[in-house]
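Lab notebook, design round three. We kept the backbone fixed and only want residue identities now. Task for the bench partner: fill in a sequence for the structure below.
Input structure tokens:
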């Protein structure tokens, strides 16, 4: 559990934040478009900041470069598309990954009921936090990643 795992955690969390940011931007754009269509307004003005897309592209480029640099073989589609956490070298690493994936899946059975209960709070929280439902949905992969990495750390030490 070294700097490589820390890098994966940082990239995953940062990409999840960028995805939430981009989704919030698209929600605002859709709301502006719906206002134009249903209220029959004359003008049409939607602003979409490109910052989250640029950050995601930069993360993808850096990750691709690091995977390419650390790979001794040629890059296949499977190697590029699978998360780097699944690049096991031996049977012990496969066992650790299998255990971590199992725990991440089990965490989903606890996360989903909590997310459903939190989603029922949407009408109360919406005036204060308009993207509440989006952040709650993005909690699901975040909690799975956390349980995965905690299991990896526990089993590797």
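Proposed sequence:
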């Amino acid at each position: 559990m070294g700097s490589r795992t820390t890098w994966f955690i940082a990239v995953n969390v940062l990409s999840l934040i960028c995805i939430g940011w981009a989704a919030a931007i698209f929600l605002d754009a859709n709301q502006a478009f719906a206002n134009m269509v249903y209220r029959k307004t004359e003008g049409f003005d939607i602003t979409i900041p490109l910052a989250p897309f640029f950050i995601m592209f930069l993360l993808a480029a850096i990750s691709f470069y690091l995977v390419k640099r650390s790979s001794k073989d040629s890059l296949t589609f499977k190697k590029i598309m699978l998360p780097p956490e699944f690049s096991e070298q031996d049977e012990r690493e496969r066992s650790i990954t299998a255990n971590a994936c199992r725990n991440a899946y089990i965490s989903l059975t606890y996360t989903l009921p909590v997310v459903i209960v939190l989603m029922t709070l949407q009408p109360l929280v919406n005036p204060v936090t308009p993207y509440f439902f989006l952040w709650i949905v993005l909690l699901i992969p975040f909690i799975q990643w956390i349980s995965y990495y905690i299991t990896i750390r526990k089993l590797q030490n």
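Keep this in mind before ordering anything: Residues 1-87 form one domain.
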